Amino acid sequence: MNTERAEALRHRMHEGADSLGNLLVEGFHYLALFAIGGVTAWAAIAEFLLILAKNHISVDDVLLLFIYLELGAMVGIYFKTNHMPVRFLIYVAITALTRLLIADISHHSEPDMGIVYITGAILLLAFANLVVRYASSRYPSVENSNMRSKLASNRGETATAPAPQPAQEVHYS
Q: Where is this region: Disordered (predicted)?
């Protein structure tokens, strides 16, 4: 009888520690997301004010503002879905490399292999984006396939996406 009580107490203690640990992790998670979102917004506003002070805008400036926009959207999507949108990271990298390419071409009149390397990196990132999009449509996350099944059953159809394996936890979209 004492062993059962001790086991029940251990189980309750374990559940309490799990709950407290989850609370602390989620609290830190939201605090960090607010900080990242705030810093991104602050940097975007500061850059926008610098652009206004210059009285002219370049393509370089517009691309930098797009980078801030994509970072802000990525934080917003992460807040709503708790999934890191990998495609947005790829978009940020493509935009940053495009910005670098434009700056390199406008400041250096002679073409060199750097241009080929940068355009090759952009092409590689575009291909990576294609792979991520294909993987997310071919192997949807468990939540996405459950939602797709619910929508299909509401319309009287059958879901067309293959059922994912239970061990599949990676979210690509």
A: 150-173
Mean pLDDT value of segment 145-170: 50
81, two tokens:
């879905």
The reported pTM is 0.63
Amino acid found at 158: T
Residue among 166, 149, 167 at smallest CA distance from 158: 149
Distance CA 88, CA 71 (A): 8
Can you tell me whether residue 167 is helix, strand or coil? Answer: coil
For 83, 95, 119, the CA distances from 112, given in Å and listed in that order, are 40, 21, 12
Domain boundaries, the chain: 2-138
**CA nearest to 73, candidates 118, 97, 41:** 41
